Records
---
Amino acid sequence: MLDQARNILKNYYGFDTFRPGQESIISHVLQQENTLGIMPTGGGKSICYQIPGLLLEGTAIIVSPLISLMKDQVDSLETLGIHATYINSSLSTQEQQERLALLRAEKYQFVYVAPERFEHHTFLSTIKQINISFLAFDEAHCISQWGHDFRPSYRSIVSTIANVTTIPFVMGLTATATSEVIQDIQTLLGVSDEAVVNTGFARENLAFHVVKGQDKQTFITNYLTEHKNESGIIYAQTRKQVDAISSKLKQKGYSVASYHAGLSEQQRQLEQNRFIQEEATVMVATNAFGMGIDKSNVRYVLHYALPMNIESYYQEAGRAGRDGEPSNCILLFSGQDIQLQKFLIEQSLMNETKKTNEYKKLQSMINYCHTDTCLQQYMLHYFHDYSLQEGCGKCSNCQRQGERIDRTREAQMVLSCVKRMGERFGAGLTAKVLKGSKDKKIKQFQFEELSTYGLFSNATEKAITNFIHYLVAEGYLATGDQRYPTLQLTKEAEAVLKGQKQIWMQQTTVQQQDTSNYDT
Ligand code: ADP
């Protein structure tokens, strides 16, 4: 059957070879095993269910969280001469009934539905009557409550369907999954370890950059001047930011599209099309934009503010360079952005365990902005992908010029200060003690009597805080939890204090930092 799969790849899609992971996923699926495929964005997940859908008897049901996407998928299948449809709330009742009738008559090889469709009695009674080849969950991480985009309606599908009919097997596909999410999907879909195909997440054509301490609007203006005719996405945190950035860019004569949840469905569709059809070169949007958008020539993805976790960041940034050409992913970092993310977690309806987990994820995102190891490697390690042996050579950390210098002594000073303060305070107050500040709190806790008080009197508090963040990012200090980010020493820190471990850093010393380009 794999030969037939290769023929379809060539004859229907016009591709000579499978991409990494595709063949393996398809072969598990053709053996009717429950299968989970994890591939980076642009890796070619659609083919993994479409080819088996063409080879196996019956109708394949594809569950997708995005209604806006279904029409595109169906249109592209129809162009290939494949019978497919979608049934969702964008259709009139009459259209829905017509499609259900054709589904009952087994006229489709593929039917795309949103998870909520499984709550409709008519849909369930229809699928009860037909031969189903398999059920595929696109964006399968939505199934897991540990995923960053949990949809409760996704989770109940398997049990709902089991009450109605028998499905030969199921498959899940996703571009983002931490090990706990993978485990969760496996349990829910009954996927054995052998049937998890994970191609790794590395995206060799992407160059990641963190930009700190610069005026963001000026950075954007300068960047766009240098990349005038390139297609790119700017992600902002709020609708207000989206409006402000897009109006500035429009004033400067750029053709801009914008997208956020405050616009009507029709307006959003219009803006999206303007971007996809190249009428607009820049898309300014909140994270409401982009899931499943297949625009291959996006040359940069610029984040105006800190995303809430690495999963979201990697997914959003990964919309750059789907065609494999070199592209940039730039994150503009400022410490203030952390507050908004904390606020969003705090006022959300999540339970305490989930909130704590979100704070932990936020901390990893913050660490990304302070680490000096390869940025791509940092994110891959986060996903437990250790395939990239050396630095990517392209990211802002790999590219930073300058020798590595021994900062062990400075680190020892910070670490012993944290220890003497009882490991009960955050980076701000620790920096004040090291600076020798006369802050009220310092008096209150009598920290001016510590031997570490004023050790960095020549440096600014900001430079000291930056260095502390670096020590957190590299795992010498733990921050408890972002809600009350108190600094604590890790095992690694003990080794540094005992002189058993040295810290080499690509950056300048705390004293030199203020005049250096550390922040750029
Ligand atoms: P994903 O869903 O993983 O983000 P898609 O399924 O949308 O990715 O595929 C991304 C692009 O790669 C599409 O334009 C698709 O036609 C192309 N593609 C998929 N498989 C192959 C292949 N084996 N050879 C060449 N191009 C492919």
---
Amino acid sequence: WKSVEQMDLRGKRVLTRVDLNVPVENGQVTDTTRIDRIVPTIRAILAGGGKPILLAHFGRPKGKVDPSQSLRLVGPALKEALGQPVFFAPDCVGPQAEAAVAALQDGEVLLLENTRFHPEEEKNDPAFAAAMARLGDVYCNDAFSAAHRAHASTEGLARLLPSCAGLLMAEELSALDRALGNPQRPVVAIVGGSKVSTKLDLLNNLVTKVDHLVIGGAMANTFLHAQGYPVGHSLHEPDLAETARAILTAAERAGCEIVLPRDVVVAKELAPGATESFVSPHECPDDMMILDVGPQTVSYVDTVLRGARTLIWNGPVGAFETPPFDAGTHAIARKAADLTQAGGLVSVAGGGDTVAALNDTGVAGHFTYVSSAGGAFLEWMEGKVLPGVAALG
Ligand code: 3PG
């Protein structure tokens, strides 16, 4: 693929797919991270003499017009981030969109309405993609975080117009390649989250790619259970015991060390401030549940990280949204951030919960790279081809 900076954009209408799927409460954007991160691409298009025409989805309106999921709500935050007016068209195809595009002057930015107000978007309908393509001369995709969707605005359009990757898309792809595609070894992956069943493809891919795989969160309980440890009433998936054992065997064959909790934090309930105890994995009482990794595990992960050159992280290692069960995730995040700052580690993190946990710890800025993607980051880590990236050629 070509980067937007390699394209001749002078006088061209640049249909730019961005991800404006941002949290909004009471009509206000509450986290502008995704907006801030597309600003460089919009500025690069303007600097190259092109006219940015922004396409995006917002929420999941399922093909129906829904004013509560209108991109009109996001316009003011985008204007603020860009420091210039952003014109808005109440549709992304048809006469209103065409008129707004025709009226756009050099130096101006236009935002089109939510692509998902049309059912044809998610069906990747060729006629719908062609209707959008009429609005531009060049297609720029800057929405890595939506690239796992084969939709008209993420995939179809790339086949109809000369295409390029925006700066954020290019940055995401190069950071992820550095972490997993072509990394400096040893590589450590930390995978947390609640269910093994939702991360099977991820675990199976990682054991063939990384040198150490740290498994935390409730999904570690399934592995402990599979190895015959008591897990009390911890969240776990007993049906997946066999699968978990197969992953352990595959890892052994591939020379990947699986790091499971060496000590765990248990409590009677998952509630803020609940009384916690630290026990070894074979000591979880029947009436308690495992909610975090303990200090011995943190210290072992620290040792592993000290010997590593690359870290890729998806998923908190404990019930981080309910203190005190955030301690393990915070401690590991701090250690990874310190090693990164000291210059020894390339650290890449992604996924909504993971980024929230890093922000909470105050160390997101100390990681080498924090992805703006949730589902797309996971699918990329699973080794899947992302249709939006593949279509860029
Ligand atoms: C995201 O928020 O991860 C992306 O915008 C994709 O959204 P979706 O899961 O609704 O396709």
